[in-house]
């Protein structure tokens, strides 16, 4: 099990980053890759989850151990795979997900892509009460501010919409987000966060 990696982010697309660790490039799937700046002079610490299947081994990356723990627990729920787990975490405030589970808020949970009423109920049945005594016990469900990432990339809104597509959102939802944010000048990570916030609020 690879618990964490520290290195330079040398490549990023809408679904993953490549982290260079002493000359070895690790491909890491992330909920929102745009929160990581491409900077070969700066080291980035990423907590990882190694998912092993018969035909593949994948690494998933998180900015905190708490996010990784939630991701790991989500995979234990029938009907949720790695892609669904990342989509739930992509909004950037995983504490809200924990709160929704503890408060049995199915209305909020079904707003995530791929989560229907049956899966939301299963999440509550499987995970409610499982966060007591963990790091999540002292994490408040508040919206965290983000620091814009300096970038010279063009078409950041297009990149963000592609990220939503990779998380499982449909063209109708993506179109609504694009329309709501098309006049905003934001970095790609903030486009993703704002879009996901809009989708959850609706």
TrEMBL record:
SUPFAM superfamilies in alphabetical order: DNA helicase RuvA subunit, C-terminal domain, Nucleic acid-binding proteins, RuvA domain 2-like
Function: The RuvA-RuvB-RuvC complex processes Holliday junction (HJ) DNA during genetic recombination and DNA repair, while the RuvA-RuvB complex plays an important role in the rescue of blocked DNA replication forks via replication fork reversal (RFR). RuvA specifically binds to HJ cruciform DNA, conferring on it an open structure. The RuvB hexamer acts as an ATP-dependent pump, pulling dsDNA into and through the RuvAB complex. HJ branch migration allows RuvC to scan DNA until it finds its consensus sequence, where it cleaves and resolves the cruciform DNA.
Similarity remark: Belongs to the RuvA family.
Subunit field text: Homotetramer. Forms an RuvA(8)-RuvB(12)-Holliday junction (HJ) complex. HJ DNA is sandwiched between 2 RuvA tetramers; dsDNA enters through RuvA and exits via RuvB. An RuvB hexamer assembles on each DNA strand where it exits the tetramer. Each RuvB hexamer is contacted by two RuvA subunits (via domain III) on 2 adjacent RuvB subunits; this complex drives branch migration. In the full resolvosome a probable DNA-RuvA(4)-RuvB(12)-RuvC(2) complex forms which resolves the HJ.
An individual GO BP term: DNA repair
GO MF entries: ATP binding; four-way junction DNA binding; four-way junction helicase activity
Keywords: ATP-binding, Cytoplasm, DNA damage, DNA recombination, DNA repair, DNA-binding, Helicase, Hydrolase, Nucleotide-binding
GO cellular component: cytoplasm; Holliday junction helicase complex; Holliday junction resolvase complex
Occurrences of domain Helix-hairpin-helix DNA-binding motif class (ranges): 72-91, 107-126
Lineage, broadest ranks: Bacteria, Bacillati, Bacillota, Bacilli, Bacillales
InterPro entries: DNA_helicase_Holl-junc_RuvA_I, Hlx-hairpin-Hlx_DNA-bd_motif, NA-bd_OB-fold, RuvA, RuvA_2-like, RuvA_C, RuvA_C_sf
Signal sequence annotation: none
Top-level taxon of the source organism: Bacteria
Subcellular location: Cytoplasm
Comment, domains: Has three domains with a flexible linker between the domains II and III and assumes an 'L' shape. Domain III is highly mobile and contacts RuvB.
Name of the protein: Holliday junction branch migration complex subunit RuvA
Location of the region described as Domain III in the Swiss-Prot/TrEMBL record: 154-202
One family name in Pfam for this protein: RuvA_C
NCBIfam families membership: ruvA
Main location: cytoplasm
């Amino acid at each position: 099990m690879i618990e964490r990696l520290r290195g330079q982010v040398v490549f990023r697309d809408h679904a993953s980053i490549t982290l260079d660790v002493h000359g070895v490039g690790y491909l890491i799937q992330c909920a929102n890759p745009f929160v990581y700046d491409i900077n070969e002079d700066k080291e980035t610490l990423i907590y990882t989850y190694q998912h092993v299947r018969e035909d593949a081994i994948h690494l998933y990356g998180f900015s905190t151990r708490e996010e990784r723990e939630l991701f790991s627990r989500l995979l234990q729920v029938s009907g949720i795979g790695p892609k669904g787990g990342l989509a739930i975490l992509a909004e950037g405030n995983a504490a809200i997900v924990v709160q929704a589970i503890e408060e049995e808020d199915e209305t909020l949970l079904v707003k995530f892509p791929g989560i229907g009423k049956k899966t939301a109920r299963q999440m509550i049945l499987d995970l409610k009460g499982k966060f007591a005594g963990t790091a999540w016990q002292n994490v408040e469900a508040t919206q965290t501010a983000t620091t814009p990432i300096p970038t010279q990339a063009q078409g950041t809104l297009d990149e963000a919409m592609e990220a939503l597509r990779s998380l499982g959102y449909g063209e109708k939802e993506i179109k609504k987000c694009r329309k709501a944010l098309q006049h905003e000048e934001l970095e790609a990570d903030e486009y993703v966060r704002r879009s996901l916030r809009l989708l959850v609020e609706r």
